[in-house]
Amino acid sequence: MSIEGIIVGALGVLLGAAFCFAGFRYFLLLLPIWGLFTGFMAGAGATAVLLGEGFLASTLGIVVGVVVAIVFALLSYFYWWGAVTVVAGVLGYGIAHWLLVAIGFSSTGLVATIIALAAGAVVAVVAFIANAPKYAAIVLTAAAGAAWLVAGIALFLGVIKTTTLSAGSLAAIYTQGWVWIGIWAVATAAGIVAQIQTTARMQQDLVASMETRKPF
């Protein structure tokens, strides 16, 4: 396994597990870190697909990844709904891309990437207007965290490579068959149950804390 694979795999397992099983409880601490990680992966991955190059194969891909990472992290840190929107968008993109690959689109194709990006934007908007921040956050963090947790494990086992993550963690898992998707679904369900049981009465304090962070 490459150094790159070890680093990405370790981050995937650690952040994925934290988000899946304690995403709402540690929302304030985890979201900026999650924003950096997923923003970098999304920006660098999208650049690789658009330019038809390997993941992290060019300076431009790395620069775009860093810029998107900073934007995601700032949104996650300063705004409650920005945080929920970031997670929703990332998850929506991953699920849409997975479905497109399942029906025959190329996992690295431009059309699939554009459609998945649009779907991610739609899911983000729906999460924003749903007006149920606690449960939106729990479902989204459990699902997104489970995807990276399973992808990280798959990286360590050599089942997938970092290059396959340019299409998103969920799409990378799907390419390995329904067993891995089943593992993701079970982890997601476990994360939702665990978070609901351990986060009673936390929403009001969390929203109040986020409000004090707004820069203007």
Provide a brief overview of the structure.
This protein is mainly α. It has one domain. It contains 9 helices and no strands.
Question: Any overview of this molecule?
Answer:
It is a single chain. With 216 residues, this protein is mostly helical. The protein has one domain. The chain has helices at residues 3-22, 27-51, 59-78, 80-102, 110-129, 133-156, 169-174, 178-198, 203-211. The longest helix has 25 residues, at 27-51. The protein is globular. The termini are far apart.
Count of helical regions: 9
Poorly predicted runs: none
Backbone structural class: mainly alpha
Give the C-alpha Rg. 16 Å
Order of helices and strands: HHHHHHHHH
The percent range for helix content is over 70%
The count of strands amounts to 0
Q: Average pLDDT value?
A: 75
The dominant shape is: globular
How far is the N terminus from the C terminus?
A: 45 Å
Strand content: under 5%
- Tally of distinct domains: 1
**Largest sheet features:** none
